[in-house]
Design a protein that fits this description.
The structure holds 2 protein chains of 2 kinds.
Chain A lengths: L6 H8 L8 H14 L3 E6 L4 E4 L1 H7 L3 H4 L10 H17 L9 E6 L5 E11 L6 E8 L1 H28 L1 H27 L6 H29 L7 E4 H12 L10 E4 L6 E5 L1 H18 L8 E9 L2 E7 L7 H6 L15 H11 L3 E6 L5 E11 L8
Parallel strand pairs in A: 7-9
Antiparallel strand pairs in A: 1-2, 1-5, 3-4, 4-5, 6-8, 8-12, 9-10, 10-12, 11-12
Chain B lengths: L3 H4 L6 E5 L3 H14 L3 E4 L2 H9 L8 E6 L7 H10 L6 E5 L4 H9 L4 E4 L4 H33 L3 H11 L4 H8 L3 H14 L5 H11 L4
Parallel strand pairs in B: 1-2, 1-3, 3-4, 4-5
Classes of the chains: A alpha+beta, B alpha/beta.
Chain lengths: ~400, ~220
């Protein structure tokens, strides 16, 4: 922070010294400066008492200066911040340790009508003054925050739409996935009925075993539903700590509803030592991976039995890279140019949103998505994400 | 499905169940057991095809309950391979999703039934009955053909010559002239043919020979 310039007032006073500039003129100019500011400017004393409250502050907090002058600054804060404020002041005054001075940070303010709003606050100390004083400059950041939220929401809507569309494409597979356990349940039940009706032998044991199997199959059916439900549910994106290996396995299971995946072997090459952990939205990462897996399978449509490899590897101390490697027909230069554009597709039945949405998701997670040719043929699609090694104490289940 | 007349001739038919889903396979096996149908379960098409080609069972006696959607070798592909190996057992396709084009293809290739999972036992029983009846009829036919062929093989070359002429509608007199033999000789050969073929009339002889001749 630059040294406070003691000569400012002198400059103001001496500006037109020849014309006998008065201290009143300097005062008027100061008031004009304060009033012209779009940001709220507030000066408080060492105990938090408000000494100055400019017009922008009045508009922002909906108080007149008469209402707040002499009152404690805590009046302008929501309770969650105000309880800490006295502590900050006294700790700074006794130790000189500043939590906020010179840094500025996002906090929340409270208007006279009780409405809370996000603000960016920077604080400076008034030095060489008769008593301890702090000056605060406050910017209302409601609009920026709102824009951010809206951008986030529209990203989520788009990624949700894209998830729904993948599920639509997989409808036949989903029906099959559900019908398997249902079919087993129905056959076990009918067999049990026959066993119970049969007068000949004592079939109790067989029936009990069948009932157990019925329970297992019912759980299997509900697992299928849960997996799909989690995937298509409209939801607020949430970052949480997720073990990457588990997430990949879950996605491969989800991908298996695609009939064509049965014709290919899925090879997993994951980090079993130094297992990676992400701070991410698991459903969105699944969505990206599912897109890449399905693209890989599409690329190998006519190459029966060709394997699809999924690999994870550390590319730096805090970046993990997940790659999906197909051995399909590869990509021509023209295709590879537009691949991340929305509505770009080379498929007959595709929305062309998959990679575009994937890119948005990965960027929002602080990672990158890229591709290249694979050897001897095919494509390799990778995305990187910030990650940590799962520590020994909290090894994944 | 077995009447007394055939019971001692044929061993009980085998229902071969092929499904890659462990639970479905196990439950269908249990259901067939409870119905009293002898069955064998195979966890995929490859296992079944291997067993079939190694002749681990009577290759023609029974029917096949085949899942359509299986990894590596689909039900449809399995059907084609069985056909190539000369398998005559009727196939009942089972599917987890109503895939119409696949069903059409399967039926065109000669599947007898197409049932959807989950199925009612009655639907399953009816389909299996139908398949086994078709199989039984087919086997009887095969049996008859085999017997007739054996009888035909027992004929001397002269007798075979005369049989062919008789069946094609030539009178003894014409045959005698054609073969430069006496009419009496033809009559004697003809009697032997009738005896060896186990028939009493010309009409019966013609029918037996036509039934045994390859239809394809």
């Amino acid at each position: 922070m630059p040294e406070p310039d003691k000569t400012i007032l002198n400059q103001m006073l001496s500006y037109k010294a020849g014309n006998q500039e008065t201290i009143e003129d300097a005062n008027a100019r100061l008031i004009a400066l304060l009033d012209a500011a779009v940001d709220a400017l507030i000066i408080i004393d060492g105990k938090g008492k408000i000494e100055l409250f400019n017009s922008a502050a009045q508009k922002m907090f909906l108080y007149t200066s008469q209402e707040v002058l002499g009152k404690n600054i805590k009046l302008l804060m929501p309770t969650s911040f105000s309880v800490e404020h006295d502590k900050y002041l006294s700790s700074y005054l006794s130790s000189g340790e500043a939590k906020i001075i010179g840094k500025g940070r996002k906090v929340r303010g409270k208007k006279s009508n009780g409405e809370e709003f996000p603000i960016f606050l920077s604080v400076g100390e008034v030095k060489d003054s008769s008593h301890i004083q702090f000056v605060g400059i406050i910017r209302d950041i409601s609009e920026q925050e709102q824009d951010k939220i809206e951008a986030q929401e529209s990203r989520e809507r788009l990624s949700h739409a894209s998830r729904l569309s993948s599920m639509g494409e997989l409808a036949a597979g989903i029906a099959h996935e559900m019908n398997q356990p249902l079919s087993a349940i129905s056959s076990y039940a009918q067999a049990s009925k026959r066993l119970l009706q049969s007068p000949t032998q004592n079939n109790e044991e067989k029936v009990v075993a069948a009932l157990d199997k019925i329970c297992d199959q019912a759980i299997r059916a509900s697992d299928v539903i849960n997996r799909l439900r989690t995937f298509v549910k409209k939801r607020v994106a949430q970052r949480e700590s997720v073990a990457l290996n588990g997430l990949i396995l879950e996605t491969v299971n989800l991908a298996k509803v695609d009939t064509r995946i049965l014709d290919h072997e899925i090879l997993l090459d994951l980090n079993y030592i130094n297992k990676p952990k992400l701070l991410a939205d698991p459903v969105q990462i699944q969505q990206v991976l599912l897109n890449l897996i399905r693209n890989g399978i599409d690329a190998m449509e006519h190459i029966k039995g060709a394997p699809l490899r999924i690999r994870s590897q550390w590319i730096s101390d805090n970046m993990i890279e997940v790659s999906v490697i197909d051995c399909g027909h590869g990509m021509d230069a023209e295709t590879s140019c537009g691949i991340f554009n929305p509505f770009f597709t080379t498929k007959e039945s595709g929305m062309g949103m998959g990679l575009s949405v994937s890119q948005t998701i990965i960027h929002a997670h602080g990672g990158n998505i890229y591709f290249g040719p694979s050897q001897p043929n095919g494509c390799i699609f990778s995305f990187s994400l910030p990650a940590k090694i799962i520590s020994q104490e909290n090894i994944e289940k | 499905m077995q009447n007394n007349q055939t019971k001692h001739v044929y061993s009980p038919p085998m229902v071969h169940v092929v499904d890659d889903d462990e639970a479905v396979l196990d439950s269908v096996g249990m259901l067939l057991d409870s119905i009293g149908l002898t069955n064998t379960c195979y966890k995929d098409a490859k296992v079944f095809l291997d067993a079939y080609s190694e002749a681990e069972f009577d290759k023609q006696n029974g029917c096949i309950l085949l899942d359509i959607r299986m990894p590596f070798i689909s039900g449809i592909e399995c059907q084609h391979r069985l056909e190539e190996m000369g398998c005559r057992m009727p196939i009942i396709f089972v599917t987890g999703h109503g895939d119409v084009p696949t069903a059409v293809e399967a039926m065109k290739s000669g599947a007898v039934e197409f049932i959807q999972k989950p199925f009612r036992e009655q639907v399953l029983i009816d389909s299996i009955q139908k398949a086994l009846q078709a199989n039984l009829k087919d086997q009887k036919q095969l049996e008859i053909i085999k017997t007739t062929q054996a009888k035909l093989a027992s004929l001397t070359s002269r007798e075979t010559q005369i049989l062919e002429a008789v069946v094609s509608g030539k009178a003894n007199k014409v045959i005698a002239i054609d073969l430069h033999l006496s009419q009496r000789t033809i009559e004697i050969h003809r009697a032997h043919v009738m005896e060896k073929m186990g028939v009493k009339s010309l009409a019966e002889l013609v029918k037996v020979v036509i039934d045994a001749s390859p239809t394809d």
